[in-house]
Amino acid sequence: METLKLDVTHSELSMRMPELKFDRGQSILSVKASLEKRVGTSSESMQLVLKDTQGNVIATMDNNDMTLGDYGAHDGYIIHVVDTNPMSIAKQFEDLSQVQKYEIEEDKYKARSDTFVKFKEKNPIIFKAKPKIDDDFESEQAAAIKVVLFVKSNKM
User: Fold this and answer.
1) How many CB atoms within 10 Å of residue 71?
2) Average pLDDT over residues 71-84
3) pLDDT on residue 155
4) Phi, psi (5° rounding) for residue 48?
5) Domains parsed from the chain with CATH numbers
6) Which of 26, 56, 93, 121 is the most buried (most CB within 10 A)?
7) pTM over 0.90
8) What mean pLDDT do residues 44-58 have?
């Protein structure tokens, strides 16, 4: 079977997975099962859209028994996963405004012994400022360097 390298995008996630390998004869149901593990959308809530290298829609791959080859997939094409579940967990991955943040009062933070600030104080050598190097550092040595190019000839 011929292996295809296809990019994968998702309707709810801003990421792009480049050059995932699929077999041209792989069924759409099998592709969905593979993608379910990668994007978190269940196969049942997945609609797959095949796009060309320019992002133009080629087909909606809605027949689970057909193959990528049946839909005309080629190297470099894009499988766009549309998550049709309104309660999808994937929607939560991008919108961090819904995540409850842990906050601590400044005096309580300062009283703790396991903070980054305390670590930095205990290990000053690690965080010591690097010395600034002058712009003309070793400029005489640099000026003395000669570049020689070798051109390899194909003539025998």
Assistant:
1) 19
2) 94
3) 65
4) -105, 130
5) 3-94 (3.10.20.90)
6) 26
7) no
8) 94
